[in-house]
Design goal:
single chain; alpha/beta; 5-stranded parallel beta sheet; 7 helices; globular
Length: about 160
């Protein structure tokens, strides 16, 4: 851990892109001997917006939040498994709140040197661009950001790692 990257954070949101990003983070972390953390954010801000818009009633909000927490647990267990298969320790954390704010806070509070995220979704409108939480995080964190693309190449790198 003598290089410029000592701590890596991978953002996991349950998409294929975030799993690919996790595989790449495992490969990179092993190669440069950096500490690796994974963060899953349960978007309670979106839940509050659904409640405020009367799309959910309070009981539905709670039930949906429990479902999201269970999803977070499953994805973080999968991330732990991906790291463990390659002999790597990973800190996998789930938090609740506004996605971009929680990522930004984690980066700051844990002195993260590199944030790794999956490929950003294609922007269909200005509104989509404004509400893309991963993109907002990418623009607001204090560290460098790596966007992982090319799922096939990443799988080959991950698979080749002994």
């Amino acid at each position: 851990m003598n290089g410029p990257i000592k701590k890596i954070l991978v953002y996991v949101d349950g998409t294929e892109g975030s799993i690919t990003a996790t595989q790449y983070a495992v490969v990179l972390s092993r190669a440069i001997r950096a500490e690796l953390s994974a963060l899953y954010v349960i978007n309670t801000r979106a839940l509050a917006d659904l409640l405020k818009a009367r799309i959910f009633i309070k009981a539905e909000e709670e039930e949906y939040k429990q479902d999201l927490e269970a999803d977070a647990g499953r994805y973080l267990n999968h991330v732990r498994s991906l790291a463990r298969k390659k002999g790597l320790a990973i800190e996998a954390v789930s938090v609740s709140g506004s996605v971009h704010q929680e990522i930004k806070s984690y980066v700051q509070d844990h002195d993260i040197d590199l944030l790794i995220i999956g490929e950003l979704s294609h922007v269909r409108s200005r509104r989509d661009e404004f509400y893309n939480e991963a993109e907002r995080a990418m623009r607001s964190v204090s560290c460098s950001v790596l966007i992982v693309k090319d799922e096939d190449q990443v799988w080959e790198l991950y698979d080749a790692l002994k």
